[in-house]
Specification:
134 residues, mainly alpha, Recoverin, domain 1, 7 helices, 0% strand
């Protein structure tokens, strides 16, 4: 999975955060998983998965145990996505992926975050509102 794919998901994950806060959360999460930079995080599957969990938890769309928070995602979508069709698509994709994550056999929160991430990438075609750089 490349940086663009990871970055593609961060706006939904961190949509309630200002751009500066996204950068701070990303820096904190990279430190938390022991990655010096994006390239190192990308090369290590375990670090990448735990980075995703940290970012999701930082934004509130997932708790520390890996349980998705649909209510928080709906609220963020209402605040951040003005186009009703795109907002519905994003929320529907999040709900579908939350169900998939909750139904998975994964118990590790980082693995759950990876299930959620992979599902969102697969099921949400309009990713332009997902883009953040850090």
């Amino acid at each position: 999975m490349n940086t663009c794919t990871v970055l593609a998901f961060l706006a939904l994950v961190a949509g309630c955060l200002a751009q500066e806060d996204v950068k701070e959360a990303a820096k904190k999460c990279m430190s938390e998983v022991g990655a010096a930079d994006k390239e190192e995080m990308e090369k290590d599957e375990g670090k990448r998965k735990c980075f995703l969990k940290c970012m999701m938890a930082s934004s509130g769309v997932m708790d520390e145990d890996g349980k998705p928070n649909v209510g928080k995602a709906e609220k963020m979508a209402e605040e951040k996505i003005s186009d009703e069709g795109k907002r519905k698509e994003a929320v529907d994709a999040f709900k579908l992926c939350a169900d998939k994550t909750n139904e998975s056999q994964e118990t590790n929160p980082c693995e759950k975050a990876s299930v959620m991430f992979d599902c969102m990438v697969e099921n949400n075609e309009d990713r332009k509102f997902f883009e953040y750089n850090f």
